[in-house]
Amino acid sequence: MQLPLPRWFAHRGGGSLAPENTLAGIRLAARLGYRAVEFDVMLSAEGTPVVIHDETLERTTNGVGRVCDTPDIVLFALDAGGGERIPRFAEAAALCREYGLLANVEIKPAAGYERQTAEVVARQTSALWHGAAVMPLISSFSLEAVAIARNLAPEIPRGLLFERVPADWQQEMQRVQALTLHCNARHLEDGALAEAHAKGIPVLCYTVNTPEQAQDLFGRGVSAVFTDRLDLFAAETSAYKGLQLGG
């Protein structure tokens, strides 16, 4: 399993420079030289996988209510900022393939839809990137979701997401055969980082928005970071060739 891992990921598509989790954001990240983007996927009321972070619509769109209760005809008519609409997962995938971007697809299930969301996203990820030169990375805070992705799309690399890295993280990584370990940059402890280094496991940190924090994390040995501040790090992303991981 191979994964070319750039140091920098554009968080939620275009970070703070474009409407969150939109096609405009992905296009902007590519224009600025980013080689990797992260975005969130959950299901509409009709089971369509869509790119959005929150379970509810109010913060990022002009809609109201829960995404999982909203039919497609309503969902895709909403304004997600600047005239952008909520993208279908398939549209975001096609754009990443067009630009040659590594996509970190975060499975973001609404409460009660963990299994259904993981099954749909895993199967579609496998189909949408079939034969691609750059495979995506599936991740989730839901261990169940990552385990389902392992079973349904074993060819797709997987990452485990934590707010704080737990004591049993290595057992969980082994159980779902995950390749990367993701955590909140503020809560990364040296002990967990040293353990990951010893096992050859890349550590990815979110959300890093200052040069000082990025420099500190890379100095400690973090492999990659997610940022909202695409403008601050664009020059570095263009120059960085990435790491080839896996075997």
UniProtKB/TrEMBL annotation:
The keyword Thylakoid does not apply. SUPFAM superfamilies: PLC-like phosphodiesterases. Its EC number is 3.1.4.46. Residues 6-237 form the GP-PDE domain. Gene3D superfamilies: Phosphatidylinositol (PI) phosphodiesterase. InterPro entries: GP_PDE_dom, PLC-like_Pdiesterase_TIM-brl. Pfam families: GDPD. Coiled coil: none annotated. It is an enzyme of class 3 (hydrolase). GO terms for molecular function: glycerophosphodiester phosphodiesterase activity. Keywords: Hydrolase. The keyword Hydrolase applies. This is Glycerophosphodiester phosphodiesterase. It comes from Dechloromonas hankyongensis. The lineage of its organism: Bacteria, Pseudomonadati, Pseudomonadota, Betaproteobacteria, Rhodocyclales.
